[in-house]
Design a protein that fits this description.
alpha/beta, 7 helices, 14 strands
Length: about 230
């Protein structure tokens, strides 16, 4: 990230730069620039993902994400708007679990996306909130929420921010999907690594993801192309 790119970002929309995100690599923050053409491609891929999940016009979705996670969730939000999906927001912290409970109580929520471990723990600790959560057909959960949700008899799908890339399971729940036109996952000496293969402003390669796992190249029944990642 350069001073020039920061100046462009603060100046508002420009022909080259949509924003700047941050991910952690080897204990340090790494800035990645995001171009407008790749945002459009990411949005198109997000639309394919929500179609695979049967999320469509008029459905209500609850998104639990931090403002700083816009580089990953932003394309989903844009895809929701284009598809006519109604979405609400909450923070992914335990102190905002009451807002999540209220949304579940008053709205016909079809999917919760981005559910965190501390939010899941807070909801499951309350019988009424846990009952409402069990009625939600689709839950995309962060890794730290998977065990408590499964322990409560729920079937969450995993979602993850892998460096600058967004990944999520399909309804088959057989591994994380990424847009294979933009990203490649491989196994390196220290575990899984991510490389940019699309025409993106940020051109990182062999980004260590601080995770081990396997890459499944077999086609998925959901129809989304590319490999799937199963993180240990």
């Amino acid at each position: 990230m350069s001073r020039k790119s920061m100046t462009l970002a603060m100046a508002g929309r420009n022909p080259a730069l949509a924003g700047i995100g941050l991910f952690v690599r080897e204990g340090s923050n790494v800035a990645f620039e995001i171009g407008w053409p790749e945002v459009e491609r990411d949005t198109a891929w997000a639309h394919r993902v929500i179609e695979a999940w049967g999320i469509e016009r008029g459905d209500h979705v609850l998104l639990t994400a931090r403002n700083s996670e816009g580089p990953w969730f932003g394309p989903l939000v844009t895809a929701f708007r284009a598809a006519g999906v109604v979405f609400s927001n909450a923070e992914p912290y335990s102190w905002d679990a009451r807002r999540v409970t209220t949304m579940l109580d008053y709205l016909p929520i079809k999917a919760i996306l981005g559910l965190s471990g501390e939010t899941a723990d807070a909801l499951l600790a309350d019988d009424r909130a846990a009952g409402l959560l069990r009625e939600v057909p689709t839950i995309w959960a962060r890794r730290d929420a998977l065990d408590p949700l499964r322990g409560a008899g729920l079937l969450p799908a995993e979602m993850a921010m892998l460096g600058p890339a967004f990944a999520v399971e399909c309804p088959a729940r057989t591994g994380l999907h990424l847009d294979h036109d933009e990203w490649r996952i491989s196994s390196g000496s220290s575990g899984l690594e991510l490389s940019v293969v699309g025409e993106r402003v940020y051109r990182g390669r062999e980004i260590a993801l601080r995770s081990t796992g396997t890459v499944d190249e077999a086609p998925c029944a959901c129809g989304l192309p590319g490999s799937r990642i199963r993180i240990d």
